[in-house]
Amino acid sequence: MSTPVGRRGILFGGAAIGAGALVTACTGNTPAGTAATSPPAAPAPAGDNDKPGEKVVIGFSAPAADHGWIAAIAKNAESAAKQYSDVEFKPVEPTNDINAQISAVESLIAAKVNALVILPNDGQQLNQVARQAADAGIPVINLDRVFPDKLSYRTWIGGDNYGMGVAAGHYIGKTLKDKGVSNPVILEIQGIATLPLTQDRSKGFEDALKTYGFSVTAKQDAQFTVESGTKVASNLLQAHKKVDAIWNHDDDQGVGVLAAIKEAGRNEFFMVGGAGSANAMREIQSGSGVLQATVTYSPTMASSAIKLARLIAQGKGMSDLVENGVPQSITLASETVTKDNVDKYLPLGFES
């Protein structure tokens, strides 16, 4: 996956293992936006695992913030590290250049950090340097875009792309069934169609809709950009004079999608977003437009990755689990945010 697309993915606060609960118990994709201004994803909870322990240095590397979700990844990681007096946070310059990120990670290996949190621009291309860190005895916490070699990381944490599609499909399917709609026109606006994460989202959406006897009428990818979101949504609306529901995979590109809908003056349908941006949640909260829900793939996962790195570096496990060590893989649940629960999720939203 040479295109730096992330994401995305899940609201840890409301996930199966919440960001806040993670330490007591021990959230591919979007462009164009401003830096996240939301508060830290989750306050450090009180508990034995949170008492100051052995001082650890945690290295951090991620892509440059070319959109809201990635900007929030870096902010959340830094905020989580600041919650602990026994953590020294050592970030390297964010970059969207593969070779530059490899060099940056190599500098952290040379500095002999106690743990490394890496969100790679491309898991395949950074696999070797992550393996170098692991072989040097530095535990790697692989964030979101997975390294193909499991020997290259100690723990992976990321979102559930298939689950996003399932959540969106169930919300749309149930809503249409409850309205008594038959043979609905359902449109799907993807991110980048060739990416596995996008394909997983589409498959989950398709599978969930099937349980209601529905299917996608038309879909088109919008490249995770605001500009393409506007263009694709405009084209789809022109091609379909009546629409019942739209699922847009990504709230950052959704800024453009909503602009096109407003420009077209269309409101006969409802829409579901993806990722859980703050601006999407505020739109849902207002109840003034077509956006009724969003399914999460939250950058709060970066906060949790830092917490996991600290536990692993200090030789601790997740205290609500029986096992002594942190799990090898944690997949966050995709939550459905609606007007009924948006107040709970809004503090964890990121700015597009």
TrEMBL record:
Residues 58-316 form the Periplasmic binding protein domain. Residues 32-47 have a biased composition (Low complexity). This is Ribose transport system substrate-binding protein. Pfam families: Peripla_BP_4. It comes from Streptosporangium sandarakinum. It comes from the Bacteria. Keywords: Signal. InterPro entries: Peripla_BP_I, SBP_2_dom, TAT_signal.
